[in-house]
From TrEMBL:
Family of this protein: Belongs to the VAMP-associated protein (VAP) (TC 9.B.17) family.
Protein name: PapD-like protein
GO CC terms in record: endoplasmic reticulum membrane; plasma membrane
Presence of keyword Transmembrane: yes
Stretches for region Disordered: 320-343
Cell location: Membrane
Example GO BP: endoplasmic reticulum membrane organization
Domain MSP: 22-156, 161-298
Stored Pfam families: Motile_Sperm
Organism in which the protein naturally occurs: Catenaria anguillulae PL171
Keywords assigned by UniProt, alphabetized: Membrane, Transmembrane, Transmembrane helix
């Protein structure tokens, strides 16, 4: 009988170029769990492992979430030129996770067998006997021989929870001394029938204000967020070649029906803000889908000739001051500040 649950090892050995093409995986890097029909709560995805090397291959499958998956077979033998199909079921209900989130990973480990090893395992006639010999082989195999193939798990809801406009880059027009404001549109494209909660974070909380910086978006609806770049007395216009290192992150969570009902009971904006604050403090990290955006400056041609001359003269005279580094005390582990001011 095949073991159903496996866990990741702490080892992460690099792929060796000579053995990197020992197997072909289909799909090669991503497993998409699409809920449909009677399997909506426990979708199944096939994974094909084809041996393209000149010797038999032993394989073993591991996962970062052993309670979230069943894998059959989870280990086995693939003769040269042959393939085996593995069935991976995502146990959404048993794992206690939301069907709209899927952030786990699957790892396929393979080892090319020498002639003696191949004959020893291949002599077994019954499937159970082969599985037993392969399991014994994996207990003693040298880790330097193991090739690792990593696959990400996704679901349609987790990959298309929202659409952002602009999608990846926030460009602030010059002159920055005018404290430019740009819009960011967040559209709820999730297949769930409940709203989503969103929150916006940044690596430079003292440089920007965001309105609103968190809220609720109902299915099929959108909201426009205004992001304003503030100006400090020590700021100078960046040079044309100077890159902006600031980043934003939009965090999204699909609400359950109970959570949506609690939000709907809020009698005003203040009560809604309080409920959202409590929600974000307690929500599990495995439910959060993150979208990252970079910041950039507009072309220097947007700045008038007089402003450009002032900028050039200030730099030539050494008047340009480097902005002071922000204190790190407000940074979260992900490098983003926990709160973005609204005004």
């Amino acid at each position: 009988m095949y073991p159903q649950y496996l866990a990741f090892s702490s080892h992460n050995h690099p792929l060796h170029t000579a053995n990197a093409m020992s197997v072909q995986l289909s799909p090669p890097s991503q497993l998409t769990f699409s809920p449909s029909g009677s399997l909506a709560q426990n979708p199944i995805v096939p994974l094909s492992i084809r041996n393209v090397s000149g010797s038999p291959i032993a394989f073993k499958i591991k996962t970062t979430a052993p309670l979230a998956f069943t894998v059959r077979p989870s280990l086995g033998l693939v003769d040269k030129g042959k393939s085996v199909e593995v069935w991976i079921r995502r146990r959404v209900q048993d794992a206690g996770v939301e069907s709209a989130t899927c952030q786990e990973k699957i790892m396929v480990q393979t080892v090319a067998l020498d002639k003696v090893e191949g004959e020893r395992i291949g002599d077994a006639e019954e499937e159970a006997a082969v599985a037993s010999k392969v399991a014994n082989f994996w207990e003693s195999v040298n880790e330097d021989r193991i090739i690792q193939h990593k696959l990400h798990c996704v679901s349609p809801a987790s990959t298309a929870t929202v659409e952002l406009s602009p999608p990846t880059l926030l460009t602030f027009p010059r002159p920055l001394s005018a404290s430019p404001t740009i819009p960011l549109t967040i559209r709820n494209t999730c297949q769930a029938s409940t709203p989503i909660a969103f929150k916006i974070k940044t690596t430079a909380s003292k440089t920007y204000t965001v309105r609103p910086n968190y809220g609720i978006i109902h299915p099929g609806k959108s909201i426009q967020v205004s992001i304003r770049r503030l100006v400090r007395s020590s700021d100078t216009e960046p040079a044309a070649a100077e890159a902006c290192k600031d980043k934003f992150m939009v965090q999204v969570v699909v609400l359950s029906e109970d959570e949506a009902d609690r939000m709907a009971m809020a009698s005003g904006q203040d009560e809604m803000a309080g409920k959202l604050s409590e929600f974000w403090q307690s929500v599990g990290k495995d439910r959060i889908v993150e979208y990252k955006l970079r910041c950039a400056y507009g072309p220097l041609q947007d700045v008038s000739l007089g402003e450009r001359l002032t900028l050039w003269f200030g730099r030539m005279c050494g008047a340009t001051k480097k902005p002071s580094k922000a204190k790190k005390s407000g940074l979260g582990k992900d490098g983003y500040y926990k709160h973005v001011p609204q005004s």
